[in-house]
Amino acid sequence: MMTRSGAARGHDILIRGGSVIIGDGRSFLERASVRIRGGEVVSVESDGGMPGDDVVVIEAQGCTTLPGIINAHAHGCAGGPSMPSGSKPFAPTEIEYFRNRHLLAGTTTLLNVCGLSLADEINAGVAASHPLDIHVATAHTLSSLAAAMAIDGKGLKARHRRATIDSQVAAGAKALGEAGGGQTLGGGAQDYRFIPAAIEAMTGIRIHPRAARSLKEAVLGRYLDGSDGTDDDRLQALIAESGLPAGFGAGAMRRLIESTVLPPVALARQGFREIAEHSARLGLPALFHSATPTAATLISLAEAFPKARIVAGHSNHPMFTPEESVRFAHKLKQRGATIEVSTLDCIETRFRNGPDNLDALVGEGLVDTLATDFAGGDWDPILSAIHRIIRKGQLSSAAAVALATGNVAKAFPQLAGDRGMIARGKRADIVVCDEHNLSRVRHVIIKGRIVVFNGAILPPTDQAFPGHFPLQAPVDRSSRPEG
Ligand SMILES: [Zn+2]
Q1: How much distance in Å is there from the Cα of 25 to the middle of ligand 1?
Q2: In CATH, what is the architecture of 2-67+419-479?
Q3: Distance between Cα 170 and ligand 1 center (Å)
């Protein structure tokens, strides 16, 4: 009887009969087979791939095989304080759900960038280990911690406040960041969490996140410096449109928004500088919250610290206009930064955000890497964004897939230097997807173990491994009954 651990220990896995995307941005093999042994890829062959004895065969007709997705900007998948606000940990059931969502969407490696949790807390409070390979980043600088305390900090204990970048890198953190966040820099988390909560505390009325964003931008402007804010008449109209009582005056709203949004902003910007310094010193990539209030700061840091490995997170942030997102990404890229876009809820969900900025950045050829971020838990799958990019004809499938595989491995070598491509000697993190829509994930292999089969996560027991041998996975599309 074939067992899952058996496959990892002694038996090859052969994926054959489908197309293969290597992850280097160029290579698409129309028909090829991938052989896995001992957790690594041992060969990619253009012939049919003869199984031989003791080989688990995955028939991949009608499918495309890709490297596992590497998501280097995610939240909510590790224990310990959550978000750059050092908020209380997520509930274990939430963490488990978020991990499962990522895994079933083809993510095999995930960097949790809440930033103030500790490297030894990845599984803190979570019942069982998870097949997803989860790592953390560190943002433990004085100003980043102070910014968290200024907005929330309720998840921070003495050991979090004592931690340093160096102690966390020594403990296994794979990158720096996230420097700043929507909580500390007047971004999305202010819209969906802090502003509605402050208004609800005052009035008993919960407003929509889009209304919160309009009010915030009316008071502070998109750069949080008041430069494109509005006058009191317009603000009063927005208060009425939000469903708040007529007695809620413009002056009171200005005070509420300013006292909710602004306290951590200067500290968070100072945290940017500290993290850029550490990045230059350690040669580690650092993820920065990129949005209108921080774009100028980030450009000046890229100039001041040319050795810093700056990753401009969610360069498609909704506080930018499409023109701004392209202009700032150009400037950052010229100064050596990696341009990351996040799916947020831009692709399918569209609760708060749309795809215009992402489309513009991809269209200008500016995007290096693709991640999800969190978007209040509404993030859309990375492969859905890749499917969108391919369908719009903006990039080849090979180039689009590289945004979330080979390119991420290059930008985050300490996290993923051993993976991100289907090539001999690389770690066998592999996803088998429907060829007409890569966001439909059929099988997932992590370090040579089949962890998702036919769309279902396999329980971590040997007996639960599908008993048939060889595995008969999808039949040829042409033999499917029509209907
Ligand atoms: Zn962010």
Answers
A1: 26
A2: Roll (2.30)
A3: 25
